[in-house]
Amino acid sequence: MSLEQEQPTVPGDNEPIIAVDNTDKTGDNNDPPPGISTPDTPKMIIPTIVINQGDDNSYTQPLMSPSPPSSPETPAPTSDDSVELVSSPEEHRPPEEHVAVAGSPVEPSPEPTVLQLSPVAEFYRGKTILLTGATGFVGKAVLWKLVQSFGPSLGKVYLLIRNGSNKRSKIGRPADRIKSEILSNRAFLALRTSMGEATFDSVMKDKVVPIAGDIISPDLSLSEQDRETILKEVQVVIHCAATLDYHERLDLALETNTLGTLRLMDLADECENMLSFVHMSVSYFNANMPDGYVQERVYPMEIGDPEELLNEIVGLELQDIPKMTQRIMASYPNTYTFTKFLTEHLILKRVDYNRVEEAQGGKKQWPVAIVRATQVGAGAFEPLPGWVDGVTGANGAVFLMGHGIQVLQTDIGHMPADIIPVDYLARIVISSASVARSPGTRFLLPYNEIITEEDEMASPLPQPIVPCFPVIYQVSGSSLKMATWREVYEAVRHYWIRNTKITLPTGQEYFVNNRALLKARFFMKNHLSNSLSSVTTTISSNNNNGNTANQYGTRGTSKPTSRTIELASRIVEANQQFLRHRWVFDHQNVRMMTQQLEGDPIFRLSPFKGIDWTSYMVNYSYGAHIYIAQCPLGLRNIVVPLRWDCALYSKHDAIRESIIERQIESVVFSLSDIQKRTERMLVQLIETLEKPGSYDPRDKKRNEEWINDFDASLDDWCHDDSQILRDAKLAAQLGRWGKVLGENDEAIKVVVLNDKRVRDSVEQIIGSSGVPQQTVVGEAFKILQRMRERTQLPYIWFAGAFLDSLFKRLFSSIRIQEDEMIKLKEQIRGKNVVYIPVSKTLLDQLLVWYICLRYHLPMPAIICDEALALLGPISDIFRIAGAYFVRRDQNTRSPLNTAVTAAYTEALLHDHGALSMLIEKTRSRTGRLHNAYTDGLIDMVLDASLEKHQPSAPSSPTVYRNSLPQPKVRKDTVFVPINITYEKIPELHMLIDQVLDQKHHQSPQQQAQQQQQQQPKPQKPSESAPTRKSTLSRSTSFLRPSASVAGRAANKDNGTLENGKYGRVYIGIGDVVDTKKMADEREDEQDMREFANIVAGTIQKRHHEATVVSPVALVAAVVLFGRSSNGIAMGSIYEHVSWFRDELKSKGIPLDWQDDEDADTVVAYAMNLLEGRQNVIIEGKRVTEYSNVRVVEHADNVMALSYMANSLVEILLPDALFAISYFSTGAEKVSRHELYESFKFLIQLFKDEFIYPWNQEEKFEHLLNLFKQKQILMEVNTNTFEKKATLEKDPATYTHICLLASLLYPTLDAYWITSCSLSALRDLPYMPRKIVPVLAQWIAAHLINGRRTIYREVLSTEASQNAVDNFLAIGFIKAVHPKTQLSPDAQILLLELGVTTNEDLVMVAARRNQDQAENNDDILGRLEDIASLCHNIEKHRFGTTAQLEAYRNSNAQVFDKCQNQIRTILRAGGESYAASHGMELSKDEDQMIQLVYSLKTSASGSEHTGSSSRNPRRVSQAYNLLQSP
Predict the structure, then answer these.
(1) Residue 1159 in 3-state DSSP?
(2) CA atoms within 13 A on the CB side of 585
(3) N or C: which end of the chain has fewer CB atoms below 10 A?
(4) What's residue 138's pLDDT?
(5) How would you classify residue 1126: left for phi > 0, otherwise alpha for psi between -120 and 50, otherwise beta?
(6) 3-state secondary structure string, 239-286?
(7) Which SS3 state, helix, strand or coil, does residue 419 take?
(8) Angstrom distance (rounded) from CA 230 to CA 222
């Protein structure tokens, strides 16, 4: 089993994944046998204990009226058995639109109206409780539930805690222990956050009271004052204290477990208002009991009378204890179970004695409940999913199992695993006191009855007419749907192998009948410990090999102590003999309580019956990892939230159990050979992804290795004899790939070549050029042959299997919302589908393809740019996935090529049914969405959907594997927008290098071809390296090559493949775009091009709406925000990230931050993915909340953080725009008009920088009203507001607004600097458009060095290029062709400098009439020139009055200063570049060439200083222009 599980779900949503049917013996139909024989119960004598029988004790009737005597119990509602859990049994969830991705929390403090509906809450209202064992596992869970459920309505909770003065405890006073062991526990920290700090602190201060005491002392070590308080106030006693050592010395175990309980009962006897006493016991007593039915009764002592045994043991001398222990161990496995069993007998003796006393007119017997539990496990829902504390119960077993210790016997895999969630147990413990009733004198003691085999088979046994007392609640897996030990082990294994480097055997390998075979097969091979010996060494080694270590966070990350490991080992060893039994524990009282509490919204038990044990055990393992193994901070749970699924490890069998999951059997290669082959392929492909330049087509060795492995893999899949690939049901989703296609697929070729558009193009070429028809048709055929996809059915399944391995290696999880998937399947039913993912990485379309294969969606043929056909291994994977390669650039695509592309696209769409394509030109280098690229592909799809250029889907002369009817009527077509959010992408560093250096990254094939063209004579490889590059062959980059590549190459981690190092991936699916519906609604005058633009805009709007946010983006944004104050405290990072989380959830934006995750964990996790050790500096030796966190001020580090944060910019764009407007208008008061004008100015300025899926006026009004509601803006008169959020008045709100504004300030500065660079056009009539971003980068470097800007994002050439494009669209500059302005000599020189004659020049544009701009509400149109634009942008850069004053004098003339700086280049002395080449140019041309050359020389100068010790990423050292040739 390898699956990613879901957080517990709401009852009734889905069936649990793993459930064991125990209806034969363990269902809800087990009743006790009829007839009770009550043994003689003489008065009990307790040595050294005085029983108080005072007559002055009064009894207070419970608030709830007792129920009438119960008749034979009816079976529990059948609906209970099909209940599925989602978030919490209480169903206390916030509104769905605010939850989205995050798991649903349990409401910490129920409202008063809810309390009135809870019988248990009504009982406990105002009650005072004495709780023992509150520092233990079960006791903590009980205390947490009391505080969480009742809160201020409680009377008081007295916690009996050992004092540090006791010789057995040196851990401080009770109040100190509460702080260190309870309040610091993660469960209570989370409760404090959810309840509210003030409420929680008030409850813990006023309601929870520590009392020093020790149950091993005869007087409980209580002070006179504490004893008096307890006797006067306590009404309920919950006794959870016990010794944790299963092999404690007999006399010490007796003191704690037996005598301690009796002493507490003595104390309860003296309490004035005693209502109920609850004693925690265990279900496992005697390992010698035969398998079968275990009654909710007390079985006889096998070694003597209980009272006599007690007297005998108490009177033993120290030297006699071992002999007595040996006698006891003959019948009981250890002193712990014996003393617990003895205690139950003595409780019954005492109850019987009290009955006699009550019958004689003495004190009434108060209710007593005994709660037995089998193996207590982690919380299923509360306090947190997977929460554990200590190694008691099953905790130690899960902890050791996950570290490779063989704690389960190899022949018990089929047996049920009896594990009880601690929150289930805590509810029963608390509820048992509320449902208990005073028994009177007419009751039976619950001793066991002898039943025959026939009686057992006839279960449930009827309830006796006379009730039994004390009531025993047997809490075991028999009341739930138990999983088997094998299923438990598989879930535990799944967690640990995904989160550590531990290797564990599969369940099939582990559970064998021959234990020696297991040792030889696996444990010896993997050097794992096969017993509980040498546990400490093994675990220490495993902890050192974990892959989650990090240095971030304020909580300690100490390793588990040797005492913890030893204790876990002893507990596991003690329980071994119980695991082999198949006991069916009677649970009639538990079932009766379940029925009574069914209407209780807080303490319902029925939802636990549908628990998903696989999810539970994965959560359990996570809890053991973080609470027991003390993993470093930053490890997140792999369990998916409510209504989400993981494509890599799906919780659905139909999705998880795919062909791609199974290993194809090869007739040539062994399994080991196949694994090694796959590993080699993965390493090479990932290296190509991370370092595209590393692929060299001339490297014959590596290429042959890839090709041989690739071909061998395909051959194995093609010759699979299992026949599974021929399954007609599986082939149905594969479209035309489910058919046996001929090698040439003649049918589709005929359709394409006979397409009307192809025929028209052929006729046009023939008519205009006179070329023979056969030649033109032959050229069309060649185009089709180069373009078309060539995959086959076995190739598809191999591609799926390989991508599954690849994505599991790259990503920890690929998450998708189930509701969106269900909705999508409904929307695309019976239609052709075109998937359109956003373009962020090379993997986007492969990821969509993989999702379609996993979730049985129509499989798309992938439309790729021709450039992707030249990337070696990546291209091969695209090909076998069904890609076809087209030329996207319409300027280089001939009419015939366009016609063939359109015809093939239409034929494939209708024959295959699904396509995948991108609408952006390139991958985003900044992490933001790009505008759609006009390549004509959308036009082709629309044309194929709305027009008819071909007959219906071709009837291929092929044999179908499955007899599927051919469609006679064309289907409608829908576009499916898909937004993919990556926490980190493999190509990130390469993209950063591109935006910083403006490198034109040619493919290796292009580079090789170019070098061959420059070397007319063939040379041997050893002679092929020229001593000097020609000018034309140099890189077109104008800046020095990035030093980040060299820095990363030196990283020791390079070369290793760490699973999941790129974090999580989130698939957001937007509403489909129905082409037919939009076509029916379009206006008649719209042509196809305009309609295609509308469709593209709609798709991108829905891309935006489908965004899922990762908390990594939040952390990156906050860390970057700290630059304004030279760093930010770690505590402030927690605060700001949490504020971002709340903001996003309030807007209903999906965010992967579950409610049981704290800010510490999320920040530490994000820091790992953000490469915190390289990108940030944390000051101080220890990380505390006061540690200052600073960004490493290198451009590539900043760009990496910025890329991560930019996904947040897309979501909070209107908020960030409004925040900037808030700061840039007025110091204390501002008018609505000023705010709106500023808001519009920014939107117009960033016209093509962002996608605006909202109406600007409506959004402005919404944000204005929001600021008014939050009292950030106070209306003083009509449309005039006073600013309340200032640094002096409201620093918290002020900082949050600054945080929002900081999301856009880097982009604003990039536009400002780009406008400054255009000051060159004051002295030059024109300059190459390509050079403007480079010039802006040079100016940005000097402004950073002069501290005029703190944002190194301005060094990005992509941001500058976007600014140039926007300035062109706005009309401040215009583009002209070089041939219309430059002389041939100038064009030649530009060509030598890497600027081709096809690239435009930019020059100042004539401005429009300003009156017309006023009428058109065009704010930018009112500006006179680019200088005015620059000054207006600058006004928005600095918002507050103090900042304006500080920067006004120094920055007011930056535009003019930049112009003067550029003039120093243009007017440099000496011979110009043109003159040195013997060319006479005009002054303007000469100065323009000199500017280009100077920037070029600057870049090449950096290249030659690569060995310098100075870091070229330090901008003050990297940009020194050489002013002479």
Answers:
(1) helix
(2) 32
(3) C
(4) 93
(5) left
(6) ECCCCCCCCCCHHHHHHHHHHHHHHHHHHHHHCCCCCEEEEEEECCCC
(7) strand
(8) 10
C-alpha torsion sign, points 485, 486, 488, 489: positive
- Residues near 363 by beta carbon (within 8 Å), at least 6 away in sequence: 53, 54, 55, 57, 59, 269, 354, 357
- How far CA 230 is from CA of 126, 211, 269, in Å, comes to 15, 10, 11
Cα separation, 812 vs 1168, whole angstroms: 13
pLDDT at 361: 79
CA angle 1366, 1371, 1376 (to 5 degrees): 95
Whether residue 373 contacts residue 282, with contact meaning beta carbons closer than 8 Å, is answered with yes
Q: Which residues have C-beta within 8 Å of that of residue 1425, sequence separation ≥ 6?
A: 1372, 1404, 1407
* pTM (two decimals): 0.83
457 exposure class (CB count in 10 Å sphere: 0-12, 13-18, 19+): exposed
The closest of 144, 191, 1156 to 642, measured between CA atoms, is 1156
Please give the full DSSP string across 1085-1123, using - where no structure is assigned.
T--HHHHHHHHHHHHHHHHHHT--B-HHHHHHHHHHHGG
In DSSP terms, 622 is beta-bridged to none
d(CA 805, CA 811): 10
Cα of first residue to Cα of last residue in the chain, in angstroms, is: 68
pLDDT in tens, 419-432: 999 999 999 999 99
Supply the DSSP string of 910-979, one letter for each residue: HHH-EEE---BSS--SSSSPPPBP--SHHHHHHHHHHS-SS-SS---S-EESS-PPPPSSPPPEEEEEEE
- Whole-angstrom CA distances from 1369 to 987, 1239, 1331, 1420 are 31, 19, 18, 11
Q: Which of 1037, 1000, 1038, 1032 is nearest to 1015 (CA)?
A: 1032
Contact predicate 1471/1525, CB 8 Å: yes
**Cβ contacts of 143 within 8 Å, gap of 6 or more:** 131, 134, 157, 159, 182, 208
What would the pLDDT profile of 577-597 be if each residue is shown by its tens digit? Answer: 788 778 888 888 998 999 999
Instruction: Indicate the angle between helix axes 260-270 and 335-359, nearest 10 degrees.
Output: 30
Q: What does each C-alpha distance from 479 to 30, 33, 595 come to in angstroms?
A: 10, 18, 13
Contact at 8 Å (CB) between 188 and 145? no
Contact 1112, 1063 (CB under 8 A): yes
Residue-wise pLDDT tens digits, 501-543? 888 888 888 887 765 555 555 554 454 554 444 454 555 555 4
Task: Give the integer Cα–Cα distance in Å for 989 and 198.
Answer: 46
